[in-house]
DUF3298 and DUF4163 domain-containing protein
Amino acid sequence: MKKKILANILMISILFAGCAKPVSNTDSIPSQDTEQVDTTVSDTQTTDTENATEQTPYGISITELTEDTTYYSKTDPSVQVLNGSASYPEISIADHADIEKKINDAIKSEVDTFWTFEEENSGYADSEYQMTLDNADTEFEPYSAEFSYETKRCDDAILSIVFKQYDYSYGAAHGNFWSYGITFDVNTGERLYLETLSDDYTSFYQMLVKNLNDQAVLPAYENFVFSDFASDIESSLLKDSASWYFDRSGLSFISNPYVLGSYAAGTFEFNIPYDQLTGLKSAYAYKGPYICKLFPGISVSHDVNGNGSADEICYSLNVGDNMDYSSASAVLTINGTDFSRQLDDLHLTYPWTGAYYLIDVDSEDSYVEIAISNENYDNPKGTCTHFFRYDTSGELIYQGNVAGIFNEDMQVRYNSNGNLILCDRNGEPVQ
């Protein structure tokens, strides 16, 4: 049964992955018990998101565009059967119109594929609507679809973007969501694939296989990964042209629901730091300050206080026997000392945010900070990321927090008063 579900999910993933050969057959559309009905569509609205053009230090600007489309029933054009929204980046590269066109054409192709899928899906939505007409006790709710993105790395070598899609169908127990990455060489505009990242791909590929398999058996992943994952690592991650992306921390691989784990496991990732990517072309290496992304429960050995000795650090979540992440308690150990009580003092409400980080906030001092995020559903403005230093005396020193859940695209620094502030890619404070 798992393999059947996996095959279906992989077909959907391929449809949206923008692989070398376009997928156009309707076999990639989830099977339905109802007959598809043609629908009419309102005019799609495309707009520049207000104040959404971002300049980078590399002559690259990113403008967020949005498209909103409503699909109506063929039999009753006043009835909405599916509402869709897509946001995506438009890239401008100074003095390189040919390169930016290659990149923008590839990005727009991903968006067009999304809308092609939703046009098909609206037919199924209309069929569901027709069925509710015969039942006075049933009220139809329109399907919904969202397409969004995150810029994971943007510099003078690489542009790497993760696209996210969420679909909800009337009457479903839950929505379906998945993510995938596309990466470009900003000096040529060409899309990069795993086999183009190394001059010796055979050795590079074997390194990836070993690293991913070694990570998947770690205790941190035991509640996420299917027990018979080994054969799926290659077929689901390394053979999928859109399962990976670059960020400042390294090469990350995405496991969507039903790929290596159950729906309940959600989307989780494996990250391979740049210093472990043996054989990666030097042109694609990250040259900025140190940053390391870690899945909760994975330990790391790194000198975080500049005393010349590596420190053993592990941040994990204790979810108890019932695997309740909503009430997970945070655990932080450094060199065998438990600092969890200091985390308790922060009254973390939902610390499961997918990753924790080591990050060199100020390259001119000897410290590498530890970043731990917390999401606050009751008060979204309270969602933030806390930063700590581990000093040479063995004390954990709280440095403050910045708004939001930290990710590889965020920049933080200390201001003249020694307070942490959130910055844009240019190092300018975010207002």
Q: What stands out?
A: The radius of gyration is 23 Å. Residues 1-35 have pLDDT under 50 and may be disordered. Residues 291-423 form one domain. The chain has two domains: 2-284, 291-423.
